Sequence to fold (233 residues):
Amino acid sequence: MTGGTIPSPNLWNWPEVYERENRAQDVDGAIWDALREEAPWAGADVVDVGCGDGFHLPHFAREAASVVGVEPHPPLVRRARERGLPVVRGGAAALPLPDASADLVHARTAYFFGPGCEPGIEEAERVLRPGGALAIVDLDATQAPYGDWMRADIPHYDPVRAERFFVRRGFSLRRIATRWTFEDRATLEEVLRIEFSRAVADRAIAATPGLTVPVAYRLHVRRRGATGRLSRA
Fold:
């Protein structure tokens, strides 16, 4: 950990490769469609927590009243600002934002483990206005093939426990099937090698004959009520 932040080695160490990974992810827009149904952001003030190099900020900005990214890693903050949108340095447990200043707090592939992210949930409550939503998008490691590789690489990770963590706290649960489709084989292999250990990456590459990898996600949403508490969407 770095200053209380859990590093993201794929993005932190290989941002250029991760940029190409982002371009390949969810080519059909299934995550965006689900998010739009569960927590629409048109005309809203949006906060993207753990925004990395800001890849998703322009998508929100096309419809949102405002969007701000929050990212703890200084090199990524600099890269994200190059997209021309506001980005501040900070972590999920101490958002550098005013109380009741957002309508949507979005966190993508940031809260995998569930237990331990309670401070981030509390901070989302603080910055959300009544009726605002906290939307958490994470990889669904219960689903093959990507989930199998993920569990093989992180044997102590229990995706069912993570899901139950959110459901017990009043979040909705929606499973989303997506496709990652790459421009060429070299990029696909490069991405799998930054996501997994050598042995698991070799296994994933051997099991993927073409340019597409099926990858499942889960979307959890909870809304902030008038009392200040978050409630199921």
Summary: The radius of gyration is 17 Å.
